[in-house]
Amino acid sequence: MNRWLPFSLGDETMSDQLIRAENRPSGFDYLRLFLSISVISVHSILICYGWQVHLKMWGGPLHPVLKFIVPSFFALSGFLVAGSLERNTVPAFLTLRFLRIFPALCVETLISALLLGTLLTSLSLSNYFSHPEFWRYMGNIVGWVHFYLPGVFENRPPPHLVNGAIWTIPFELECYAAIAALGVAGLAKRPILFTSVIIFSMLAFSVKGATSPTYGLSRGELILPFTFGVAIYLVRNSLPFSLPLFVLSFTLSFVFFYFKATSYLATPFVAYSTVYMGLRNPRRMLLVRGADYSYGIYIYGFPFQQAAFQLLPGGTFWLLNIAYGVLSSGAAAYLSWTFVEKTILEQRSVALSRVAKFIEWFRLLFRRL
């Protein structure tokens, strides 16, 4: 096949690179941090200058870059969780996902509602705690996403918006549920069929009536990169790990994202570009050595940026707002990882054992019935 291309793809595959990195390439850790900080950077424009400027940015020449960030997160997640599903049963896989996602989400919800909310609300504390919006916000702990707290950030350009970053959580949960269902159906063991279904789905999204929105990202632009990330993992033994292919994919990602009508066609190229970067294995620095702060930075960033705008000198200037957001969310992510997330993850063997016992008990009960 290489003879028909103007460049050589080489003999190395994605699987070869993954094995060379001992199944733990550092590129994914660096990429997660970079994407998290990129999200904070984009949000700084919305927080500092409001919806109108934010919408102009999304409608300007930089919008393909903006569109790449979150789908890249989903592609990265798809590749990594496909490996988790391959190594575990479906119940164990879902348990591990729960242990990774919900502890930090719980901490973020409590920090926003009990700390920032009580300090910054314009209501009396009795009215604040009795308000229905306060209790609806607590639904974030279980992935039932709400963005507002009563009397908090009410005079901001996006009024009442406490944490705009968590809008992706329901889509992420949908992706986990979908891949678990595919695992039950056995489709994950048929990589060619799985990839064919994903390509067909991409083409279906691309037809008339399923065009990309002018602003932001659609469900398809998140779920498709995730599923292509899964597909890349499944065909890793035959898919080239190629710098020229990366350059081509990276370029086509932005080209297809630039035009509304071709936006969904960018998703496989986003996935390949993301996985290629993730499989690189540079030396680990302190920030990515034995910890994952990226998820915390992602979910803590927005409320701290909002608070910085309201409370800190220079917080209304986007560059300082980014600095405040990165430093504060980074500190929160460190504390959350050290004292909550890591502690819970260290108990995952106990949790998996209990889930396995419950499943076995349920099977025995079903047989008796």
Short description:
The chain has helices at about 15-20, 25-60, 65-85, 90-120, 125-130, 130-135, 170-185, 190-205, 220-235, 245-260, 265-280, 295-310, 320-345, 350-369. The chain is mainly α and about 375 residues long.
Give your account of this protein's structure.
The chain is mostly helical. It has one domain (13-368). It is built from 14 helices and no strands. The chain is globular and about 60 Å long. The relative contact order is 0.17. The model has no long low-confidence stretch (mean pLDDT 90).
**In whole angstroms, how far apart are the ends?**
56 Å
User: Class by helix and strand content?
Assistant: mainly alpha
Largest sheet: none
How many helices? 14
Low-confidence stretches: none
The oligomerization state is single chain
- According to DSSP, the number of beta strands is 0
Series of H and E elements: HHHHHHHHHHHHHH
Instruction: Provide the domain count.
Output: 1
User: Compute the gyration radius: what is it?
Assistant: 22 Å
Average per-residue pLDDT, rounded, comes to 90
What's the helical proportion of residues? 55-70%
Shape: globular
The proportion of residues in beta strands is under 5%
Primary descriptors:
mainly alpha
What is the topological layout?
Layout (H helix, E strand, L loop, with lengths): L13 H7 L6 H33 L3 H25 L2 H31 L4 H6 L1 H6 L31 H17 L5 H16 L13 H15 L8 H16 L8 H13 L14 H18 L6 H28 L2 H21 L1
